[in-house]
Specification:
Layout (H helix, E strand, L loop, with lengths): L13 E7 L2 E6 L2 E5 L14 H23 L4 E10 L18 E10 L3 H14 L1 H8 L3 E9 L2
Parallel strand pairs: 5-6
Antiparallel strand pairs: 1-2, 2-3, 4-5
Helix pairs in contact: 1-2
Length: 154
């Protein structure tokens, strides 16, 4: 019998090209992504800002890892919504002074609909904190991520 071993380390590649002083056109795999600033910040407002992209990555990763953890623990998620709020200290990006932790706290409000019991849902919550790579990077950088969970029963 042949044992298939999953890759544990993968390489990501992307290319960014200057489209404007505040706009970067990215190619990632076979996707085109625009990262841009608001007009008020000198951009063309054709995409989300770099720091918004970072926060969007956290929301997307939270969604994916929550579902993976739920599958692992036999928790069927019927619906999932993630709301994020964070204050951003812009002094660093404004070149006023160096800021070690531009996002001191990030609040995630995670609402799931499931029939699973509380103990199973707690396993999902615990594993999300253990395995979400984007959250781990942010926490290691000094950001506090607060999760507030709302569990709805259908």
């Amino acid at each position: 019998m042949v044992t298939i071993r999953p890759k544990t380390v993968v390489t990501f590649r992307m290319r960014g090209e200057r489209a404007h002083e505040a706009r970067t056109d990215l190619t990632v795999r076979d996707h085109k992504v625009v990262i841009d600033e608001r007009i008020e910040s000198g951009g063309t407002n054709t995409g989300i800002a770099p720091v918004e992209t970072l926060l969007a990555a956290l929301v997307g990763c939270t969604n994916r890892i929550t579902h993976k953890c739920a599958d692992k623990h036999g928790v069927a998620i019927e619906d999932l919504t993630i709301d994020l709020e964070s204050q951003y200290d812009r002094r660093g990006s404004q070149l006023m002074e160096e800021i070690d932790v531009p996002f001191k706290t990030i609040d995630l409000n995670i609402e799931i609909t499931t029939h699973a019991d509380e103990a199973s849902v707690e396993k999902v919550k615990t594993d999300l904190r253990r395995f979400c790579p984007v959250a781990k990077v942010l926490r290691q950088a000094g950001t506090t991520i607060n999760e507030t969970w709302t569990i709805k029963r259908p």
